[in-house]
Amino acid sequence: MGTLWSALGPVADAVSDRPRVYADANVPAGLVAHMRGRLRWDVLFVMDHPDLRRARDTEHYRLARQLRRTLVTLDRDYLDDRKFPPAQGAGVLVIAAPDERGLMDLLGRLDARLFHAEALPLDGRKLHAHSDWAPDTGAADHSRDADGADGFKYKNG
Question: Within 10 Å of residue 56's Cβ, how many Cβ atoms?
């Protein structure tokens, strides 16, 4: 027997064309407000749910997949493919910038280039995006990355 959230996942997919993200506890509340207000993303923020605040990373990863949401985090641990296999996730976006303003700017650029086209753009993939990313230079430098047609480099399973 599944949970209410898992039962509602397919319904949400059908009715929402906005990006659906799962923001873990490492994401600053101001950045979550930016995603919800300015970018108009559908954000499940773990800090809004007392039962999720202290969950392990593996539980957040599993739940994001179950809910069909891209996991957004500042935690580089999610880049470990042995612990978090890309094929078993709904997509992971690990972001890095010197400050919250830089994170907001980065998400704005990612929204325009990646999330604008579909609600779950990283399904089965990971993207490590840095504040110095520019559309023509890519966003990550992992071994085993696959170049995307959109100028990003993705980590596939």
Answer: 8
Instruction: Give me the tens of pLDDT residue by residue for the chain, a chain 157 residues long.
Output: 455 444 455 544 444 578 999 999 999 999 999 999 999 999 999 999 999 999 999 999 999 999 999 999 999 999 999 999 999 999 999 999 999 999 999 999 999 999 987 878 999 999 999 998 765 544 443 333 444 545 455 666 5
Burial of residue 81, with CB atoms counted within 10 A of its CB: 0-12 exposed, 13-18 middle, 19 or more buried? middle
> For residues 117 and 148, is the Cβ–Cβ distance under 8 A?
no
- How, if at all, do strands 70-73 and 20-23 pair? parallel
Encode burial over 100-132: b for 16+ CB neighbours within 10 A, e otherwise.
Answer: eeebbebbeebbebbbeeebbbbebbbbbbeee
Stated pTM of the model: 0.80
